[in-house]
Amino acid sequence: MRGNQQVLPSVIKQLKEQAIDGFNVTVPYKQVIVDYLDELDPDAEILGAVNTVVNQNGKWKGYSTDGEGYVRSIVDRYPALLNRETSVLLLGAGGGAARGIYRALGQQQVKRIDIANRSKEKAEDLLPLRFGNVQTSVLSYPEAELKLAEYDLVVQTTSVGMKPNVDKQIISLTNLRTQTVVSDIVYQPIMTKLLADASKCGGASIHHGHAMLLYQGQLAFEKWTGKNLDVTHLVDKLENKLRGV
């Protein structure tokens, strides 16, 4: 759902008059849509954002599938990565994706999720979303660069590196250790400058952002229909399409 926020009430009215199972919501509506819903999933209520709306017997219920969609995508590619010994660095704290990913990774009971952001105060806003006993430190980007060798997974959650600013990179990977997985939720371009840099580090692995897009869509489809949709075979197909292959 895109467009002018002033037309949102009339769009919602039209949707409620139709016999549809639900719809997806994107920026800048993930927070304002909450005011038009009858009910929120507990995680969506905590996150304060919704990207999936489901019609349940005439009542609209809001969910956030970004975080769980991200987790599904990373587990599909690296099934042994997330465990009680895993240390994660989250880059960026300003968007809804960062909030959802932070909470969803915590639900996987990883050991540590540090948050790096230009503004530490903004990063601290994520701390109330912490799940369980996950440890979290708030860092500046220069501090994160110095500590980079401590992490098993680095997740870039901002729009840095997105078209047309493809020459941008949020941090230097000079201190990246081998075997670390570097993940970027940007998928236009499919190979961001950050991922290209990571691929040059011997032993490091990369994770593309389009997989998160597919898996959050899978979750939305499940909530609308009650049916499981296997998207595993679509990950490579979408990557090839984005590469122009």
From TrEMBL:
Pathway noted in the entry: Metabolic intermediate biosynthesis; chorismate biosynthesis; chorismate from D-erythrose 4-phosphate and phosphoenolpyruvate: step 4/7
Q: Which InterPro entries match?
A: Aminoacid_DH-like_N_sf, NAD(P)-bd_dom_sf, SDH_C, Shikimate_DH, Shikimate_DH-bd_N, Shikimate_DH_fam, Shikm_DH/Glu-tRNA_Rdtase
Q: What is its EC number?
A: 1.1.1.25
Q: Which residues form the SDH C-terminal domain?
A: 209-231
The molecular function terms of the Gene Ontology recorded here are: NADP binding; shikimate 3-dehydrogenase (NADP+) activity
Per UniProt, the keywords (alphabetical) are:
Amino-acid biosynthesis, Aromatic amino acid biosynthesis, NADP, Oxidoreductase
Which GO cellular component terms are attached?
Answer: cytosol
Stretches assigned to the Quinate/shikimate 5-dehydrogenase/glutamyl-tRNA reductase domain: 85-160
| Listed GO biological process terms | amino acid biosynthetic process; aromatic amino acid family biosynthetic process; chorismate biosynthetic process; shikimate metabolic process
Which catalytic reaction applies to this protein?
A: shikimate + NADP(+) = 3-dehydroshikimate + NADPH + H(+)
List, alphabetically, the PANTHER family matched. BIFUNCTIONAL 3-DEHYDROQUINATE DEHYDRATASE_SHIKIMATE DEHYDROGENASE, CHLOROPLASTIC, SHIKIMATE DEHYDROGENASE
Full protein name: shikimate dehydrogenase (NADP(+))
